[in-house]
Amino acid sequence: MMNLAIRIRGLRVVRGSLTVLDDFDLDIQRGSLTGLLGPSGSGKSTLMRAIVGVQKVAGGTVEVLGLPAGDKQLRDRVAYVTQAPSVYADLTIRQNLRYYARVLGAPISDVDRAIEQVDLGSHADHLVGRLSGGQESRVSLATALLGRPEVLVLDEPTVGLDPVLRVQLWELFNRLAADGATLLVSSHVMDEAERCERLVLLREGRLLADDTLPGLLARTGAADAEGAFLHLVEKAEQEVPS
Predict the structure, then answer these.
(1) In the beta sheet, which residues pair with residue 34?
(2) Which candidate, 215, 220, 217, places its Cα nearest to that of 233?
(3) How do residues 119-168 score in pLDDT, each as one tens digit?
(4) What SS3 state is found at 165?
(5) Which has the closest alpha carbon to 157: 193, 192, 185?
(6) Does residue 144 lie in a domain region?
(7) pTM exceeds cut of 0.85
(8) Which residue segment(s) compose the domain that 82 sits in?
(9) Does the N terminus or the C terminus of the chain have fewer Cβ atoms within 10 A?
(10) E strand or H helix at 1, and its extent?
(11) Domain tally for the chain?
């Protein structure tokens, strides 16, 4: 228990007549980099929202760092980056980060560090509204790095980025995990699986697998993560009663 950053038991999320997650269990170790993979509509964003405490749940428990998800004591210990940028277009990158540093009570010295970590140093004094979509997403990521949170929940942080920048960000994620942070990173791009310490595969709200990539490949006999995912999907469909 002490080594768990996230503990989920029996999580159930319902929207209208649709059950998005049902009787869902998951453990995520502290200091790990876990990839949350699956196609659009598989429940990835819903699960992430439940972990940060902003998702209404119908049942079950979600604990983060030993506390109920969303607990006020987690405010500066858990960072969440959504797919939609959450920064101000009429402020510069530096002004945005200075504002969020004050809100979080993070040291001002964190501002330049976070900007450099997402490779935006040369754009620090540019208005966010004049940045590209990928740059704006990186500004949101930079705000999440302020204060050195213990848990980072990142929803599709590399979507729309060029291959070189994607590689650089995954290198950053691995460095953060090596320094003790716990990262849960969602993606629908299967080739990003090889950059994760552990993989959680979702489809239609079901947990298909929670394993390392070598473990998945050994279990399925597949050559890559995409092949393993397809194998597990086919197996799951065969197990559904007709």
Answers:
(1) 184, 198
(2) 220
(3) 899 999 999 999 988 899 899 999 999 998 999 999 988 887 888 888 88
(4) helix
(5) 185
(6) yes
(7) yes
(8) 30-53+71-239
(9) C
(10) none
(11) 1
